[in-house]
## 1
Amino acid sequence: MLSELMVTNVGGVREASLHFRGRFIAITGESGAGKSSLVRALELVSGKRAQSSIIRAGVEEAEVRAALEMDAP
């Protein structure tokens, strides 16, 4: 299960660290708040091929890291 997502320079997100608790997560916010950028970050950690167009304007690289936890049997 995804427990943490760290995002740097993806789309409109300069830097974010999200800690997930529980099994249901809702991401809400105003237009331009970075919701779609977080979805792109989730796609990347799920194995989707990266495109240079997701890198925040004005910087040369982006980074996405995820922490996963195993459920107890």
## 2
Amino acid sequence: MLLTATLGTGLRSLPSNTEENLEEQYTPMGSPAKAEWRFVQGHFTTNDSYGFSNSRKSTGVNFVSTLVVSSTASLLQQEILEEISTLDTVVQYLYVAKENGTQIGYDGVCAKYQGACVPSNALLSAWRMNKDLDLTNITFPVFNLSGQLNYLVGTIGGTFLGKRTGRNQLLVKAMRLLYYLKTEDVKDNELSHMWLIHFLNQSTNIEKSLASKKIQVPGGWVL
């Protein structure tokens, strides 16, 4: 008990008004873990503004996500994807004003790949590019679109094969929307946090204003 109390007092010395850094604060100085982390940072680089890759990140990533659930057997229908697309568009058109009046939009804080914001969902992005996409031929876990493989694991949920219009096809109950934000640069990180806080304050109003008929966001938004 005495040892626990003594060690616990050390936590009071940690700054309370700064974000936790697990790697810096909770691994011993000169430990193998820190050396490995430095190696990864030096050899597996990524660029939040052009070549973002979550799998190559060695530090924390700012993001917000939600699970959109269809009120029907499957969301692979034009009218339901339209509702999801509308929700996604509203999120990406959200602006927050700085103290000097400058507006910061999602495009200014989103993590980017080849100059464009990383899509919130691969399947939704594919459908947006081609709204004539044959939704009855979607495959899981890998979907081949014009020779480009799209990995859908973790992006859709409640998947199973079922019969619709007399044939077997993939039925999808839920879709995950995931918005990655810039974190590499200190200034970008601050702006990302500012946009994120504003978004969370507005998320309930966004859902109410859309009044979607065929989709729900039962779990709210998750950081």
## 3
Amino acid sequence: MRVYFDPNFSFNELIDYYAPVIIEINNQKYIDLHSLTIVNLLGVHPKFKGLEKLEDMLLTILEFDDIDIPKEYLTEFTEGTFEKYKISNTISLRQMYQSSLAHPNLLKLENTPNNIEFLVYLCSQYIIENRQYFQDKRFEIILEMIAYIELKKFSERTQITFSMPQPFIFLFDLSNVTLERTHLLLDEIEHLNSVLTQKVPSIYEYCKDKMHSLEKLFESIDRKSFSRLISIFASIDDIISDLLSLKNMLEEIEKIQ
């Protein structure tokens, strides 16, 4: 049995980043998009280790004696699944690069074990290192709104499915996306992340004395519902438009005899 993977990862790091592997069993190649099948191989010493070019990629190759591994995560190696391998690998590489930064950015990108998708969310290490900005939860909500609006623009521009399943957790579905569009989206997110991280102190200085004016708004609805409200409407203007429509409706109802 042979296992192929990106040489930027050590074998033990593959699961940490949900990076993909190619597994060859009886001369038949399969793809595991998130290395979920290699658990039984961790700690096993390979018979052979080297580098080998597969299609257009130079990959690390490990050769093991035949070992039972779960098959439910394996898909047949085809041109289409190899494209998905590259997409998952690209996400994991970006995640690993972020993890290597001396000072974390505001947003963290993370591969998931589910098909081809990734998360973007508020980085906990950034909060720890910049806790002065997060003592007021209202500021976190404002940052969430800024991030959501910008990420949604990227989603619409690249035509990639985007959602916010939880407060300050954004999900991009790449199931039907090319590698080229994936790179375009990730580049835009990285640029946004860098810009937002640099601007957080200035945004905070601008907002810190103004957030009290939003106190009733933030207290009238719980955080999860507020995040859902943001994700349902296309923009803040749409929320205002609906509220004005409600106001006008109530005013007209008052006139009914």
